[in-house]
Write a structure and sequence with these properties.
- The chain is an alpha+beta fold.
- It folds into two domains: about 170 residues, Jelly Rolls; about 110 residues, Homeodomain-like (Arc Repressor Mutant, subunit A, Orthogonal Bundle), CATH 1.10.10.
- About 45% of the residues lie in helices and about 20% in strands.
- The strands form two sheets. It has a six-stranded antiparallel sheet with strand order 1-2-9-4-7-10, with helices on one face.
- The longest helix is centred in the middle third of the chain and has 24 residues.
Amino acid sequence: MEKSLFEKYKTSEITSTRRVINTPSSFTRNHFFYIQEAGHLKSLKPHESRRRGLNSYLFIIVLSGSGQVSYAAPQSGGQMSSMITAPAAPGDCFFLDCMGEYTHISSAEDPWELLWIHFYGPQAGAYYESFLERRSWHFRSSHLSELTAGIQTIIGYHEEKNEDTDLLSAQQIVNILTLICTESDEKENSFSVLNDKLKDVRHYLDEHYTENISLDQLAEQFYISKYYLAREFKKEYGATIIQYVLTKKITNAKELLRYSKFSIEEIARLCGIDDASYFNKVFKKMEGCTASEYRRRW
């Protein structure tokens, strides 16, 4: 009877599944990363799976639904750490050393959809130690699309094997490990804080773009270095703060030109530009025509 590392689900318990099981050559085992099993499933009902003492590393991505994963990490002397249970939601990732003990079960109310890969290789333990120096076994990643694509690509390689399958699979495993081992929780938290602050700055600009706003003022108001703010704002939104504000002004001006009877000078002032000639210069640079021409055309 076929025995798999993840679980052999009954047809009545899933809506769809893809699974590949691999038996690598001795050369591959000794030199490359290789998969033992990889797959995708969408469950219909709760099904608890329990494993321990496997020479394998398991990486799971929750695509949809919910459930929970419990894990006791292996310790020296064959002991296990205390079992810790973590909730699983869409976007959650789990990276486990299967010499420890783990269980996973989908919720009954919102059955989950998973991608997973069991893998091993000469350097697997070293990568896992490097991973644990930065992260917990339960984490979220900003590289979710790349990680998902990596597992799906590996499954595809093993569904249609050829002489390059082992090498190509090893490359994908290294890519996956590099992504999750070089991204730390501290970076994620820092990014989250910065992202929230940038959203606050943008919201302020959206509300006050008709006013005179300086980079120094924003830096002081939002407690952030003006140079850091300028660089990260452009990186996040694809425009400098000045460009963003000017775009807001011109967008508002275009609406007034089309749907109001205000003069060009009045529209310039309403958009926060007191100099009508400068307004026309900026408008033409951005739209390729003067404000008067825009009004006539539209």
